[in-house]
Amino acid sequence: MSTPPRPSKANRREDARAQALRLKEEQQRAARRQRTFAVAGLVAGVAILAVVVALILGQANSTSLDKTAAPASATASGGILVGKDGIAGKSDGAKAGAVTVALYSDFMCPICKSFEQINGATLDQLRESGDIVMEYHPVSILDRAAMGTQYSTRAANAAATVADQAPDKFLPFMTSLFADQPAENTVGLSDDQIAQHAVDAGVPQAVADTFTKGTFTSWVGAATEQASKDLGQLGTPTILLNGTKLDAKVDWRVAGALEAAIKAAQG
Amino acid sequence: MPGTPDVHDVPSPAPPRGDPRPGRWQQWQPWVTLVLRVGLAAVAFAAGLAKITDLPASVRAVRAYEILPEAVVPLVGDALPMVEILLGVLLLLGLFTRFAAITFGALMVVFIIGIASAWARGLAIDCGCFGGGGSITPDQTKYPLEILRDLGLVAVSAVVAWWPRTRLSLDDSLGLAA
Fold it and tell me: Is A74 helix (H, G, I), strand (E, B) or coil?
């Protein structure tokens, strides 16, 4: 049996140095771990706080439709009915079996303007003859395309205010806004310009002056959210005939196509 | 016995992990990852900021996929933009780089699944990746492009997650564990 060689002095020194090094490395690793946990905790805390703030902000602008102050004539789904007389909220006098034509549009949406120009007159005629009842849904899905001025919401709020306060001027005011539609990704019409369109359409100045109060701004937001829920995918314009989406094969740009679809829905 | 390593020897520095060939890649990798990391940060910021300025639109975009139940649609739509911004901050600062890259990549995988599912079901929607979203006409859909872009982002995230050490990172200057 051989005894292990006695460690020399130099060996012992080396031994101690290696051990010290290992200890130091271990301490460094522990400190690193501790630092990492501390920073991770801090970051996680900030992140959770930020997400909670985002959720609160999101909830704040999503009041449900039945809890917002709606225009007098609005339907539960956020529409404004217009019948024979062309007065917002008055849908009586239509023929039996009249088709309800729901139209979701955004005042900044170019295709909505096209739709208005191509089919506006026809829809007016059909409505006046009692064949259809119109259900206008002014929604605001293009706020981001107005360089921060939220033109879609401002215009829709103005339309809702007119529907509420000067219901017989609702249609001419909407026509006027579409005719002077601003391009996307511009600031849109100013509040004064919107008010001027209203006055030109016959809305009393006193009513036009209240647009900037945003009386129905939250209703517009809630009605847009409701429209999104009802339709699943909210795009503009969307046309519903008696609650059913207009068949994608119907090209409303072709003269007579929309009218034919309406007649078909009449049965 | 001569020739056998003495257990008391101070261990010689271990060969570097990862690429066995030291040299150019190891020299360049921290810079390459830096560029990729900042690129990912820019994408995350752009996506998050575009959405957070119009949270109702973000909610509508999530809803348009018709995947999540209505109860969680607003939560996801409202929280997602902030999550993207936070990931952008981490990636920009180089803080918990590996975690941020993996999370971002996972998010992209989820998006790819969502877009592919919308495509497969014949929906005509905009992915809403950078704001907007919702219904568009069928000829306006860009599903292949959207999926390719997100696949590219997954690849970049994977590279950053694999080699998370970068120059000018808080991970480095705070001396955090990888």
Answer: strand
Compute the distance between CA of residue A262 and CA of residue A264 in angstroms, rounded to an integer. Answer: 5
For an interface test with B, give the residue of A51, A63, A152, A236 to mutate (most B CBs within 10 A).
A51
- Whether ipTM exceeds 0.95: no
Query: How far off is chain B from A46, nearest CA to CA, in Å?
Result: 9
The pLDDT, as a whole number, for residue A169 is: 96
pLDDT band at A129 (very low <50, low <70, confident <90, very high): very high
**Cβ neighbour number for residue A167 with a 10 Å cutoff:** 20
Q: Does A114 touch chain B (CB under 8 A)?
A: no
> Chain B contacts of A51, Cβ < 8 Å?
79, 82-83, 86
In degrees, rounded to 5, the angle at the alpha carbon of residue B79 between the alpha carbons of residues B75 and B82 is: 170
Q: How far apart are CA B161 and CA B105, in angstroms?
A: 9
**Cis peptide bond upstream of A204, omega within 30:** no
Give the distance from residue B117's alpha carbon to the nearest chain A alpha carbon, in angstroms: 15
Residue range A9-28, pLDDT digits in tens: 888 889 999 999 999 999 99
Contact A143 B177 (CB under 8 A): no
Residue of A nearest to B73 (CA): A229
CB spacing of A32 vs B175 below 8 angstroms: yes
CA distance A147 to A183: 11
pTM: 0.84
What is the rounded distance in angstroms from the CA atom of residue A204 to the CA atom of residue A197?
Answer: 11
Interface A-B, measured as beta-carbon pairs within 8 A, has a size of 107
Tell me the per-residue pLDDT of B99-136, one tens digit each, with 9 for 90 and over.
999 999 999 999 999 999 999 999 999 999 988 888 88
Q: Distance from A115 to chain B by nearest Cα, in Å? A: 14
3-state SS, B39-88, equals HHHHHHHHHHHHHHCCHHHHHHHHHHCCCCCCCCHHHHHHHHHHHHHHHH
pLDDT tens digits for A246-261? 988 899 999 889 999 9
